[in-house]
Amino acid sequence: MDVSVFQIIWFVLWGVLWAVYFMLDGFVLGTGFLAGVLAKNDTEKRVLINAVGPVWDGNEVWLITAGGATFAAFPTTYALMFSNLYSALLLLLFALIVRGVSFEFRGKLESTSWKGAWDKAIIVSSFLPALLFGVAFGNIFKGIPMRNDFAALSFAYDGTLIGLLNPYGLVTGVLFVLLFAVHGSLYAAIKTTGDLSKRGAALADKLWLPLLVVAVVFLGYTYPATKLYDNFLKAPVLLIIPVIAVASLLLVKLFTAKGECYKAFTFSCLTIVFVVFTGVTGLFPNLIPSSIDPASNLTIFNSSSSLLTLQIMTVVALICVPIVIAYKIWVYRLFRAPVSNEDVLGSHEAY
Fold first, then answer.
1. How far apart are CA 83 and CA 106, in angstroms?
2. 148 close to 154: Cβ distance less than 8 angstroms
3. pTM of the model
4. How many CB atoms lie within 10 A of CB 160?
5. Counting beta carbons within 10 angstroms of the beta carbon of residue 213, is it exposed (0 to 12), middle (13 to 18) or buried (19 or more)?
6. How many CA atoms within 13 Å lie on the side-chain side of 37?
7. Of 163, 168, 89, residue with least CA distance to 129
8. pLDDT given at position 122
9. How far, in Å, are 62, 72, 135 from residue 76 at the CA level?
């Protein structure tokens, strides 16, 4: 097959990896930064942490895989992202590290101040990635101020960390925060019991309207701020992707209002996946467009690895991805039961 076929295959896989990561880690981030609102005492905070405890680190595999796929399949894009956006990505990675450490360290001492400090760390280190991922993808959709000389392998980034916090980037950041907040609230509703579960369902219902408002603002703002709609106007059949995202979001509200949180959570998963698919489809064939010079756009065609590398990666992916998916399904089935107060109070191994 021609190299362009493999470039398209890896662009699709790149989008799928990010979508799966946001779907899985989105509820962990949402549950984390809403823990102070949902939980009313130390036991309920432990219940929330133990609800995400068996799966949060496994979800990070999809983030590592998405980063690894970018490095191996599109090394020029990876190099620019991790050199010119170094400060933003370092802040993001620190937040993810602190979140993991907080889960593990919180229960090491029976001290109110110790646990209180780690509780704050969980909230901040869960909120920051949710916001920063949205800001990052908003800026990618919008285009980053960069000039590239591909012949000389020279790249110039004219932006700053503060410049990433532009209005469109912030709107996308707020959209991600609210998507993950509703997602996390629904996860708390289905993975806990009693009053904590009821508060999770009630919070998801309250947050749905702000999410809808921000989603409408995002869709309207996307037209003047980006070129994402160009591909959909050229091939209207692609509109089925954002239509599924919007329909799934409406069904989240329908099933939340009816108290059917499992169904609402399922459609929340679909909403996140198809929101990401909408952005990725609009980007094609770009990976990072330039906001100041279209000739400097990093695309799947000018930033990919060699044909041999892409062929080897495809074979490895065909073998390893089904194994990872099977393992993840096994883990989620094994820990599918809701976590109760009695579970954490009666176990020395609980967080």
1. 34
2. yes
3. 0.94
4. 11
5. exposed
6. 20
7. 89
8. 96
9. 21, 10, 21
Q: Could you report the per-residue pLDDT of 184-224, keeping only the tens digit for each?
A: 999 999 999 999 999 999 999 999 999 999 999 999 999 99
Which residues on adjacent β-strands are paired with residue 290?
144
In 3D, which of 297, 251, 287 has the Cα closest to residue 270? 251
Q: In angstroms, rounded to a whole number, what is the distance separating the alpha carbons of residues 196 and 343? A: 14
- Distance, in Å, from the CA atom of 168 to the CA atom of 174, rounded to the nearest integer, reads 10
Q: pLDDT (tens digit, 9 = 90+) per residue, 259-306? A: 999 999 999 999 999 999 999 999 999 999 998 888 889 999 998 999
- The rounded distance, in Å, linking the Cα atoms of 123 and 126 is 5
How many H helices and E strands in the chain?
Answer: 14, 4
The dihedral built from the CA positions of residue 17, 21, 24 and 30, taken in this order, carries a sign that is negative
Q: Are 119 and 36 in contact (CB under 8 A)?
A: yes
In this structure, which amino acid lies at residue 162?
I
Place of tokens 């096994």: 330
**Residue 286: its H or E element:** strand 286-288
Give the phi and the psi of residue 337 in degrees, each rounded to 5. Answer: -70, 145
Residue pair 281/245 in contact (Cβ under 8 Å)? The answer is no
User: What CA–CA distances, in Å, run from 157 to 99, 173, 290?
Assistant: 30, 22, 10
